[in-house]
């Protein structure tokens, strides 16, 4: 059980760090609160869309800034879109660079635009790396699905109060300790419900 | 017994930090808006996905489309009786103002209700929306509370007795 607590603590610390560094803002919390049983992968889905869109937009921006005669309206439209989607997922630092980027666009400041593109690329890859670390598992997801389901049931049964169950599931799975943890938790859960039935616990 | 003690520590640890966080504790839908048929139009994939989920959280039945053309064609098909259009103002090809104008021209002055979504901070946005026959505006990024408040206000004004 110690290592479960330790892993959870790591997850909590890591998430808190992302907020402290201003990489994420409260909008990301809202995203997590929107996730529910009817759509347990909502956060990962939205963030994946964000990655796809951002990469397309960053490519478009790089191309547009290389042109002989720069189309600032087009650039502004791309940056506007990136600003919108980054603010929707709470990627605060990407969003902030977008604001500066749009100002440079308005001033038709090519050097400023190029600098902003580098900055926004940097901030984007930072938030991407951090979010991927948070989600790590994508791709392996199908593999342990039935176990994940049981894990979820056990977690509910034992009234685990986790910030985001799917995140912690992924975290455990990522650490390669999933089954071990699952069995431990199951034993504890059974023990717990047995005690509850016997009236030893009223928790 | 030592196992149980650890278990309790973990519980309080989780609760202390994330008391409001567990998704299953959130109300699944708001009874005020349950069954409200909404068509959401936004060309941006991320924003559309998030806004759709927000509306569903409030209890709405949401159809999401990614262009003004799709929105108009969905509205014109007879079996779809949307009560509310949530419309992003800034879209390529046909923007939200144009979509609203056409809705008011081809549908009616008071059906369906239209709420605009905008990231713009301009003061005159609200006026321009009113001129185009829209009923409300929500600033992006959209928050659950802001969405609920504006929906309630617009429905109340339309005399739907909430």
From TrEMBL, chain A:
| Protein's job | Functions as a two-component phosphorelay mediators between cytokinin sensor histidine kinases and response regulators (B-type ARRs). Plays an important role in propagating cytokinin signal transduction.
Domain HPt: start-end pairs: 39-134
Q: Which Pfam families match?
A: Hpt (PF01627)
Source organism per entry reads: Dovyalis caffra
Q: What is its main location?
A: cytoplasm
Q: Which PROSITE patterns match?
A: HPT (PS50894)
Report keywords, A-Z: Acetylation, Cytokinin signaling pathway, Cytoplasm, Nucleus, Phosphoprotein, Two-component regulatory system
- Write down any Gene Ontology CC term: cytosol
MF GO annotations? histidine phosphotransfer kinase activity; protein histidine kinase binding
From the record, give the transmembrane residue ranges.
Answer: none
CDD domains noted in UniProt = HPT
Any idea where this protein resides?
Cytoplasm, Cytosol; Nucleus
Q: Does the keyword Cytoplasm apply?
A: yes
Q: Where Phosphohistidine occurs along the chain?
A: 80
Q: Which example biological process does GO assign this protein?
A: phosphorelay signal transduction system
What is the recorded name of this protein? Answer: Histidine-containing phosphotransfer protein
What the entry says about domains is:
Histidine-containing phosphotransfer domain (HPt) contains an active histidine that mediates the phosphotransfer.
Top-level taxon of the source organism: Eukaryota
From TrEMBL, chain B:
Q: Which UniProt keywords apply?
A: Phosphoprotein
Q: Name one GO molecular function term.
A: metal ion binding
**Superkingdom of this protein's organism:** Eukaryota
InterPro entries, sorted: CheY-like_superfamily, Sig_transdc_resp-reg_receiver
Q: Which positions does the record annotate as the modified residue 4-aspartylphosphate? A: 88
Annotated Response regulatory domain ranges read 37-155
The entry's cellular-component GO terms read: endoplasmic reticulum
Q: What is this protein called?
A: Response regulatory domain-containing protein
């Amino acid at each position: 059980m110690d290592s479960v607590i330790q892993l959870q603590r790591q997850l909590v610390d890591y998430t808190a760090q992302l907020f402290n560094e201003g990489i994420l803002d409260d909008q990301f919390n809202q995203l997590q609160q929107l996730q529910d049983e009817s759509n347990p992968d909502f956060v990962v889905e939205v963030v994946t869309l964000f990655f796809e869109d951002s990469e397309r937009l960053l490519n478009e921006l790089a191309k547009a800034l290389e042109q002989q005669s720069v189309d600032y309206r087009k650039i502004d439209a791309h940056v506007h879109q990136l600003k919108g989607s980054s603010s929707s997922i709470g990627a605060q630092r990407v969003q902030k660079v977008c604001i500066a980027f749009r100002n440079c666009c308005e001033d038709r400041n090519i050097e400023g635009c190029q600098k902003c593109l580098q900055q926004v690329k940097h901030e984007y890859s930072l938030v991407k790396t951090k979010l991927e670390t948070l989600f790590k598992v994508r791709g392996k997801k199908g593999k342990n699905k039935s176990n994940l389901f049981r894990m979820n049931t056990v977690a509910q049964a034992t009234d685990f109060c986790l910030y985001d169950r799917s995140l912690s599931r992924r975290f455990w799975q990522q650490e390669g300790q999933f089954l071990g943890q699952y069995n431990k938790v199951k034993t504890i859960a059974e023990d717990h419900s047995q005690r509850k039935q016997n009236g030893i616990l009223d928790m | 017994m030592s196992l149980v003690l650890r278990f309790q520590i973990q519980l309080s640890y989780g609760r202390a930090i994330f008391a409001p966080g567990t998704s299953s504790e959130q109300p699944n839908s708001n009874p005020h808006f349950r069954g409200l048929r909404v068509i959401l139009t936004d060309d941006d994939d991320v924003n559309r996905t998030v806004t759709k989920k927000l509306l569903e959280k409030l209890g709405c039945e949401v159809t999401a489309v990614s262009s003004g053309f799709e929105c108009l064609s969905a509205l014109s098909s007879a079996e779809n009786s949307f009560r509310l259009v949530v419309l992003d103002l800034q879209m390529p090809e046909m923007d939200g103002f144009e979509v609203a104008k056409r809705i008011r021209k081809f549908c009616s002055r008071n059906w369906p209700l239209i709420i605009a979504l905008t990231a713009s901070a301009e003061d005159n946005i609200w006026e321009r929306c009113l001129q185009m026959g829209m009923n409300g505006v929500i600033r992006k990024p959209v928050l659950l509370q802001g969405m609920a408040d504006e929906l309630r206000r617009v429905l109340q004004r339309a005399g739907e007795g909430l």
